[in-house]
Write a structure and sequence with these properties.
The chain has 101 residues and is mostly helical. The chain folds into 2 domains: 1-66; 67-101, no CATH class. The chain is built from 3 helices and 2 strands, in the order H-H-E-E-H. It has helices at 2-66, 68-71, 96-99; strands at residues 78-81, 87-90. Strands 1-2 form a two-stranded antiparallel ribbon. The longest helix is centred in the middle third of the chain and has 65 residues, at 2-66. The chain is rod-shaped and about 115 Å long. The chain crosses the membrane at residues 26-55. Keywords: Membrane, Plasmid, Transmembrane, Transmembrane helix.
Length: 101
């Protein structure tokens, strides 16, 4: 009887150790999956932000090109009117106020 109890106890200990190893392996695999998922999510966020800023800049440039009179002064330009009544948006490269310094 004593030998049978020892065998049962040894088998139970072996099963317990294998269960602990299995839990550790499952946690390691799950953590690796989370790392991959987190990396993909971060890459998607970065690419999405870059795409947004790239498209936003194009939209702003298109809006300025379609309505320069509205956006000229807000963009730092000056509306110049000709003698014939036509006007255009001008940007100073070197503003006269900078020349007086």
């Amino acid at each position: 009887m004593r030998g049978l109890e020892d065998k049962i106890s040894a088998a139970a200990n072996h099963m317990r150790l294998e269960a602990v190893k299995g839990r550790q392996q499952a946690l390691y695999s799950f953590g690796g999956g989370l790392a991959v998922f987190g990396g993909i999510a971060a890459l998607g966020a970065v690419l999405g932000a870059l795409g947004h800023f790239w498209l936003q800049g194009r939209a702003d440039a298109r809006a300025f090109g379609e309505h320069p009179g509205i956006f000229c002064e807000g963009a730092g330009g000056t509306v110049v009117t000709n003698n014939d009544g036509s006007s255009y948006c001008a940007f100073w490269i070197t503003h006269p106020s900078q020349l007086r310094k």
